[in-house]
Amino acid sequence: MSKQKLELTWIGKEKRPKLEPRILLEDPEKSYHAKHRVTDNDIFDNRLIFGDNLLALKALEQEFSGKVKCVFIDPPYNTGSAFTHYDDGLEHSIWLGLMRDRLEIIRRLLSEDGSLWITIDDNECHYLKVLCDEVFGRANYVGSAVWQKKYGAKSDSKYLSESHDYVLAYAKSKERMTVHRLARTAEQDSRYKNPDNDPRGPWTSGDLLRNEARDYAIYEIVGPSGRKHWPPEGTSWRFTKEKFAELVADNRIWFGTKGDNVPRLKRFLDEVADSVPATTWWEHKDVGHNDEAKKEIRSLFESNLFDTPKPERLLKRIIELSSLPGDIVLDSFAGSGTTGAVAHKMGRRWIMVELGEHCHTHIIPRLKKVIDGEDPGGITQAVGWQGGGGFRYYRLAPSLIVNDRWGNPVINPEYNAAMLAEALAKLEGFTYAPSEVLWWQHGHSSERDFIYVTTQNLSAEQLQALADEVGPERSLLVCCAAFHGVTATKAAERWPNLTLKKIPKMVLARCEWGRDDYSLNVANLPMAKPDPVEPSAQAETSRKKSRKASAEDASQGALFGEDE
């Protein structure tokens, strides 16, 4: 019988966006760094990106594929509730499609030993689990933790009072991933006592029984009080009679304060590991709850700004399980910025993406307080955070291709020469790295393969001079407005070290140009139809467009030169 791959199906699953790999533009005015180093391990090159998170993930793909150790996302739960900062009521199929598109890029961004952690509730958890099985492979499912987000019942609940969310964890490659252990807590250590004043210190006791009958380990034990003990039927002692005698001689067996209890094995605190594995039950006392998260936000902004913030202790648990200091942590649904704040305090490099205006009004001020050492809340005291480091602020560049007043696709006039060269380098799979010596080297894909971008029309003489300078040991992709004096076929024969492509024809069919929002917001969905325009209004709009001739049209004209 052949094995069949089980997949989740939904309406529109086959539709996949042709994402434009945008470049990122840094805004130094919004970037922020500490005035001096606090420690030698301060990290200054963290990234805060303003823009649609699907486009931002695509923008990061070329530089960060295989480099991100931990991705945490807290996506809209699709519960039907209207939240302040996003509409969380997408139709189920649309939600799955939008999540699938993000998960596929996230998987490519993860390092081979990296992992993804997602907070989600009952409404979509089980569908998301199957979707993640499909994207990551079911064998790479690490597990799901139950987070106790509320510590009391909601008295007006009609059915069951919801008190938990799930944390789904997936590995890029489970065989290569390490889930780190947690440090022992004072509460765990407090379970060790020393009722017999053993000089070896505090201890706790464990069962001596084995849940199977082994003849060599079935024998009578006589306690200090004279009471006799036999293992119950179907069981046996864990040790042979000889080994048990050695343990008694070493004061490793405890019969109780009166000496007549069933014997138990003593385990000393200084003999146990200083760490423990995480369980799948995350109590609020260990990782925080919703109210704690809201108090953290109020302490920073003096108001309730977010409906479902996550407590810093929850992010600390996820980050310490999945990464080490210096690793990259990514959150593409930044929300209130908790992930970046916690990762920063824990010495991780971080990348966050947020489209909402609260990126500027709340995330940046929060991060500034962290960097300046003026955020005493959250995990600050637990990790001994004193400030330092910094981040660079980026925004997504506008779409490379726009339509001119006649509806023809042209290079966006907002792009200068450097932006155009970087954008085309990214589209062609080159690393943008302009040479300070060779004017024609705008980027490279190897030590001998380069790219050159110009809005000029190149003549045969110019191409010959370029080919001579490149030389036979190197190759150059030439992206230009047009070339004349030779056909593309003849050019390939005449200059084998050059590959000629025309702008913007070379990229027109590759992407969905001009679309800036793929967010999980109902208002931005592609299937939403625009309101009908009255004939008179439509005519007026057309007249306005026809009157909007501008100087930029002339500058774009060169981009559509024909071969001569």
- Mean pLDDT metric: 88
As an assembly, this protein is single chain
The total tally of domains equals 3
- Kindly estimate the percentage of residues that lie in beta strands according to DSSP: 15-25%
If you compute it from the alpha carbons, what radius of gyration comes out, rounded to the nearest whole angstrom? 32 Å
Measured distance between first and last alpha carbons: 63 Å
In short:
InterPro entries: DNA_methylase_N4/N6, DNA_methylase_N6_adenine_CS, N4/N6-MTase_EcoPI_Mod-like, SAM-dependent_MTases_sf. The chain is an alpha/beta fold and about 575 residues long.
Which descriptors apply to this entry?
564 residues, alpha/beta, Rossmann fold, 3 domains, 11-stranded mixed beta sheet, 5-stranded mixed beta sheet, 31 strands, 28% helix, disordered C terminus, EC 2.1.1.72
